[in-house]
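Schema walk-through. Below, the input block comes first and the output block second. Nothing else is stored per chain. Lengths vary across the set, and this one has 292 residues.
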Amino acid sequence: MLKRPLNFLSADKQSDALLPWVISVMLFLSALALSFALGVNRGLDSWSKGLTSTLTIQVVHSDTIERNRQAEATIKMVRATPGVTSANIMADQYVVSLLSPWLGNMPIGSGLPLPSLIDVTLDDSGDFNLDSLKSRLNVAAPDAALDDHQAWMRQILDLAGILEVLLIAIVVMITLCTITIVIFGCRAGLAAHQDTIEIMHLMGAEDTTIASAFDRRYLQHGLKGGAFGVCIASVVLYGVAYMAARMGQGLLNAALPDLNTVWWVLLLPILSGLLAMITARITIRRALTDMV
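--- output ---
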């Protein structure tokens, strides 16, 4: 019986010549989706950590003297609160810059009363009591309002969770599409070489020997297509990271893939090659069993 490797799949006349290009497109999309799916979770942790460790207190009053008095009382009370690292009043120039998207370039001495914003930084000890601070704040400064960023942070976290699930679902659907394409390619290859396979059966070739030729072919297709797709995806990710870095720190910059994510992406060509080979092996051996 013939047991040595066979190479009857000619390279100049392939029925699956477009398969590496299709796999490269699939791996390109999978690399992008997987990178951002892994980056969103890591980015939200690092980005939201800075927000959950800070508070913002604003004192709004039309009278400047009363507003300053309440702001000073708030500063003294907050600094004496356990779990607070620092508390500082933001400069008027910074407050004006925050309001500029809505009010335009407004001069500081325009007569419009500006709120006093107090930036509070918390430590990691866990001794901070938010409810107690709110109660004492109502007594020290009746016109003060505390923003702990929790309300809209929950909305962002919920949205990020939905986005992460969608990205993972995209990767799963792309994987299923790749498997389907490989199955059709295998069947097309069998149809194109059916006469040759029947002759090899008559010569004593085993199904495993014939199937191993398809295994090697589709392993090469998966590796080549996966490597090309991941290379293009890496270029796109680098371009996005470069543009995000120019925008400064933020959610988009924090959600970009880090070095650990890049290592997972580099494994995708190997995984695509193994996926294509395993799919081809199962498909070809089942088809050869039906041919006997």
